[in-house]
Amino acid sequence: MYGTVSLFSVLRLVVLTFFLVQVSPHSLYGQEGRKIRLGFPAVSFSSLVHLVAKEAGIFRKHGLNVELIQISGPVLVTALIVGEVDYSAAINPGILLAAKGLPLTVVMATTKAPLFYVISQAEVKDLRGLVGKKLAVSRIGSLSHLLTRLMIQKGGIDPDQVTYIQTGSTSNSLAALGGRAVDAAALSMPFNVVMTKKGFNQLVSTQGIGIYPNTGLQASKEKMENNREEVKVVIEALLDTMGYIGKEKGMVIDYIKRTWKLSADVAEQTYKEFIPFLPRDGKISLEAVQEYLNGAFKDNQLPRHVDVKTVVDLSALEQVLKRK
Q: Of 27, 151, 200, 222, which is most buried by a Cβ count within 10 Å?
């Protein structure tokens, strides 16, 4: 004999099913939130989106209990591969290692390019004034050095006509410029604003070089395959943070002021200069990344040509954008 089902039982099942379908994925993580370990390279403006997401409670609003772990350089990639962190905020150097075969993929961007500037002594008025002069970089062959050469080249000057002085760090470059040991320096934000307020000249920035892999969200391919919903929740939180940074000017300026110990006017100017670097939709140009990979192959950083789609997967981002 078959059992009977009451109308009340059917209605209760329908209501429960409706609830489970309508509830957002991150609301199922529990009161404390889904625990996520997110590695980032430094307390810098390149990581500002991730830092603000934590500071402003945006991760928590999305049901995520995020632990930000500062890990530098290739060590962060290793941590991501072995599962010590769930995600990396740094796209570089992971994108090149992914191109060499590591099972990693970039799923979104939070900056359009690294935040570097060429700042000069007051008497150097433009890029032409750098010819035959000394320019401080943190390390020969470093990202700041390579991007400085690219900025100068994009400005119509042969970068080989400039003498690059290795200082060991951005703070040392700052000191060298301030002490007139060099004619110019490659500086990151907010040091460019600090120095221009003192009368130094800002000759060029990475805003003029186009899209260039920098920071965002990188995950293992296993994470994308087996925990896609979690990836989408993290993406959504970072997208909302970029919107928050654009809308909540006063709150963000106050955070910048406190974190980098800046004066109010320097913090505000730094905020203004940061905003154009935000990709509000989280997208990174596949054409630009392909060009970057082609350049890496040409410079012998990669053993073969690599298709951008093997190292960048924006499908989860596209799904999030469709429902926003």
A: 151
For the record, the structure tokens of 312 come out as: 């960048």
Question: Rounded to whole angstroms, how far apart are CA atoms 181 and 175?
Answer: 8
Rounded distance between C-alpha atoms, residue 216 and residue 46, angstroms: 9
Domains 26-113+212-323 and 116-209 share a fold: yes
- Enumerate the domain spans of the chain: 26-113+212-323, 116-209
Summarised one tens digit per residue, pLDDT across range 106-164 is 999 999 988 999 999 999 999 999 999 999 999 988 888 888 998 999 999 999 999 99
266 touches 100 (CB < 8 A): no
Q: What does 74-98 look like in DSSP terms, one character per residue? A: HHHHHHHHHTSSSEEEE-TTHHHHH
**Would you say 77 and 102 are in contact if contact means Cβ atoms under 8 Å apart?**
yes
Tell me phi and psi for residue 119, to 5 degrees.
Answer: -110, 135
Those residues with Cβ within 8 angstroms of residue 231's Cβ, 6 or more apart along the chain or in another chain: 107, 219, 223, 224, 316
What CATH number should be reported for the domain whose range is 116-209? 3.40.190.10
Regarding the domain with residue range 26-113+212-323, which homologous superfamily does it belong to in the CATH classification?
Periplasmic binding protein-like II (3.40.190.10)
Supply the DSSP string of 221-266, one letter for each residue. Answer: HHHHHH-HHHHHHHHHHHHHHHHHHHH-HHHHHHHHHHHHT--HHH
How far apart, in Å, are the Cα atoms of 93 and each of 100, 143, 168, 289? 11, 10, 19, 13
Task: Tell me the Cα Rg of the chain.
Answer: 23
Is the predicted pLDDT of residue 3 greater than 50, yes or no? Answer: no
pLDDT in tens, 146-157: 889 989 999 999
Question: CA-based angle 262:263:266, to the nearest 5?
Answer: 85
Question: Residues 6 or more apart from 296 whose CB is under 8 A from it?
Answer: 96, 99, 302
Model pLDDT for residues 223-266, shown as the tens digit of each residue: 999 999 999 999 999 999 999 999 999 999 999 999 999 999 99
